[in-house]
Hints:
- By secondary structure, the chain is an alpha+beta fold.
- The chain has one domain.
- It has 2 helices and 5 strands; from the N terminus they run αβββββα.
- Strands 3-2-1-4-5 form a 5-stranded antiparallel beta sheet, with helices on one face.
- A hairpin with a 2-residue loop joins strand 2 (58-69) and strand 3 (72-77).
- Helix 1 (2-38) runs antiparallel to helix 2 (114-143).
- It is elongated, with a radius of gyration of 23 Å.
Amino acid sequence: xxxxxxxxxxxxxxxxxxxxxxxxxxxxxxxxxxxxxxxxxxxxxxxxxxxxxxxxxxxxxxxxxxxxxxxxxxxxxxxxxxxxxxxxxxxxxxxxxxxxxxxxxxxxxxxxxxxxxxxxxxxxxxxxxxxxxxxxxxxxxxxx
Length: 144
């Protein structure tokens, strides 16, 4: 009986963690889709600066882009990354919101990291549900 209670406890923990991972992934993908829908216009951004910051034992870099929309100049600061993928003066594609040109993102960056998290979350959910079903079946067999 003690093993069944432990199985149920671990199954519930797996389901909770699975829900959290799946929820985060769905939220991140929905935010990405929303941003892609808002930022429908493509512009060319030029790297005007590369910010460098020390995080404990590693250095990370983030590019600062300048771009033009309707004759006005704007800047957009990218995200920190362990590798410096840019040089000052380099150009890249940016996507901007034509209604709010300050709303921008790097067109070629993807959120690939979300998919393994989603797969792990769904896997935890499935494994948790399987464990509960198995624990219930074991409980039924102990009764008879």
